[in-house]
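Lecture 7 notes: from sequence to structure.
We start with the chain below.
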Amino acid sequence: MILRLSAITFCVLCVLAAQAQFWFGPKGGATRNDFIYQSEAYADTFLVEPSYSFEVGGVLIYQANDMFSVQTELFYERTKRSLESTELSDVAVTSNTANSFLSVPALFRVSFNRGPTHYYVSGGPKVRMWLGGSGRISTDSNDEFVEGDNVWTRLVFNDKNSNTVNEIYAVPDVNRVQYALVIGGGVYFDLYVGGRMLLDFKYAFGHSNMGFNNNPDFQLRDYTENFRYRSNTLSISLAYLFEYDVQGARKGMSTIKASNKKKR
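Predicted structure tokens for the same chain:
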């Protein structure tokens, strides 16, 4: 039964692919990240402002017809976070981090034609993988016996590889693969010089914490870095798309074959 369903699914995909129209190209844009901590006490003790960063990568769109399409992406995403203690904290501390991710959303789109300009709404899941990061934890302590800064230039995800001397810190208990739900929309239009310009807006609701551990690498005086938080991301990106028409390509190949036969 499973083999039969798999064969039917494969055949349907082959038929759709044979009639498909694809758009692909580079993309880049700006992001805003809002950080949500699981501990209300921690959120009250430390102030975390929204941060701004960037994303860059590529887009692939499968155009089933004028109304329905599927948009997939593969892009590098940078997330910055700045934390500062409030008056409720027992220690004056600041923490600045910059983490890198590889993200892959898969979005179902519904388009609305308004003359040469097309509008669409989209939604679907997003998966991203935590690649690494850097950062600094600082205190305002005047105690000469207390180290003032913890600095890491590289993160590893195995506590055996941690090396604080070389500024390599370990985060052994993390969610490297994280999930989010994305909703969005945008506008695209065809260019006279060929291709298509796409302006895309997305908001991703994060569903995975960064981690759960209390690693000594991220402790400084009375402060311990908290990884039990997730982020919601607003992104605005611009893409230039090239067209690949499967039917057009097949017709072109047929024309070439027919021409070769006549020459013979």
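Points to note: Residues 246-263 form the longest helix (18 residues). Helices lie at 2-18, 40-45, 246-263.
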